[in-house]
TrEMBL record:
Keywords: Metal-binding, Zinc, Zinc-finger
Domain RING-type residues, every copy: 7-48
Protein's recorded name: RING-type domain-containing protein
Pfam annotation, one family: LON_substr_bdg
Ranges where the Lon N-terminal domain occurs: 181-448
UniProt-recorded Gene Ontology molecular function terms: ubiquitin protein ligase activity; zinc ion binding
UniProt-listed SMART domains: LON, RING
InterPro entries xref list: Lon_prtase_N, Lon_prtase_N_sf, PUA-like_sf, Znf-RING_euk, Znf_RING, Znf_RING/FYVE/PHD, Znf_RING_CS
Organism: Mucor ambiguus
SUPFAM superfamilies: PUA domain-like (SSF88697), RING/U-box (SSF57850)
Amino acid sequence: MALLLNCSVCQHQLVDPVTLSCGFTVCLTCLPSQEEFQRSTFVCPVKQCNKETHLFGPNLYLDNCISQIIKLEQPDAQNITESLQCSIGNHLLQFPITSHCGHSFCKLCVLQYKISNDSCKKCQKRLPSYQFIQHQPPTLILQQVLLAYNQNQAPQTDNIAAANHISNMSISFDPSSNASYKAIPIFLTDFAVLPSQKLRIPIYSEPHRTFFINSLLNCKELQSLCFGIVSRDKANHKGRFGTMVKINSVEQRGNDLVIDVVGLDRFQVTSVLRETDDFLQADLEIKFEDQQDLLSASNSHWIDHRQQAVVKQLPSKTDSRLPPSPDSPMEDVVATVPTLPSSPPAEPVIYTPAIKLSNRIHDFISDLAHSTPSISFCSAIEGLLGPVWLESVQGLHGTLPAADNAVAMCWWSAVVLPVSNTDRYHLLATESLQDRLDIILSWIDDLKFQWGNCRRTVINSAAKVGQ
């Protein structure tokens, strides 16, 4: 155990340990001087660190959990278990992260705790923002200690207080896991939310807030909180399709909340247990994408690999790192210049029917993006869209996926194309990827026809004026 408790800078056993927001723990004396903290730039003392920003400040606090472990003269199962407890969930730490105040919690526990509480449960110092916590890496030493502890000594459940579960419900987006879930609370909205779609949801009333908190689902493989959304309909919701969304950030505005989410996988309601005007409690089944339609199998969700384009980044500050406030995001927001993935991609691709359809959609988007803005009417689309349009939609919905990433292309194009909510729900309820891509291509044909009619109308009107 002692070998794990070494400083990431001097490599000696930790003395007065401080855990940085990059996940590394160092001796207090290995940190920069107070003078350097007062400067406008800061460089992490850990050579292995590749984070652009840190939650640094002149007032640093010792890591409480690691300090307790170091002080143990004769570690045994009971006192190590007590040291590795999450005080929010009241159970052994899982994916531990350490706040700047020096206290460690399970990531999922503190994410849900942050929604209703702005202060650390242990010391009442202000917690970082939800977005910062969401992107914070685990505390490396605690991860290693937990791994060694679980391998050598099973936890003594008699010595662990009863777990105070932050959420009683969990969900998995691993296709090999159970896809059916019972009695899941679901939000009702006025429109269909699609996979990969980004959305901002305001929560104003107290009943709305209570239901939102009670409907949160833990996803361990993503280390995120999720919940389900179904479009509101006067008919019975049994058989209706919805989308599981992941929470990216939570903004507190007095007693109100503003939740930023992104769509993940579709689900279908199999049985309705309870229903109100705004909420639903139902059994559901997750509708995973077919493995042959995905570019590659991965432990991460497919949405994390949807942006295959090479994005040109502005020069980053590699040796000058600004100390953000506790509400700053984990990493700097890097400005990007919209670029189009090559089509077809450089690496050999097996062109399935779905990928062929995806290439046609990609070519259409590329044509729109490369059209030259003009006041003339020499083509159906010239001057209507162009690179400004692509830059705008990529800023809102993420980079245009590569042409061979048919799943991502399906949902990305469905979000950006101007179609009705009814059309979007019809797409959400369509099982086959190939059929979904055919629907999108039919939308494109309709748009081309409409633009053609507009062009002819304008030309005829201009001709009459000229007469």
